[in-house]
Amino acid sequence: MQERRPLSSDLLESEDAYLVVFDAPGVSGEDVDVTFLDRTVEVRLDRFRDFYDGFEVVFPGRGLTLSGSAELPADADVTPHGANATLTRNGTLQVEIPKDGAAESVAVVEEGDPDADGEADDDS
């Protein structure tokens, strides 16, 4: 059922950028694909269903492949180094698009990912 509905999104605006927010529970960074096409942010999420000993799926209501899109205003644009996507620990995908530039895809960074800023988050 969930795979048939597009992911809901919020579009927020600041002085110099737009932020598109998607709910992405149960997804990890390598399972997220964010692209930009014709002033639209398109998102595809692949996630996996946990297995439970002694139980089998009767009704698969939670989709494994989810997608959604958000149309951007005319002044939004994506640059290879300006746009970024962050997958938060609570399962929210945030795609920030500056108001100037051009590109076709966006890299996704997970919070706490050592590649994000050169060092891992330390909760101690």
Automatic annotation (TrEMBL):
Record PROSITE patterns: SHSP (PS01031)
Q: Which domain of life is it from?
A: Archaea
Pfam families the record matches = HSP20 (PF00011)
Residue intervals passing through the bilayer? none
User: InterPro entries recorded for this chain?
Assistant: A-crystallin/Hsp20_dom, HSP20-like_chaperone
Give the family, as the similarity comment puts it.
Answer: Belongs to the small heat shock protein (HSP20) family.
Protein name as it appears in the record? Molecular chaperone IbpA, HSP20 family
To which species is this protein native?
Halorubrum aquaticum
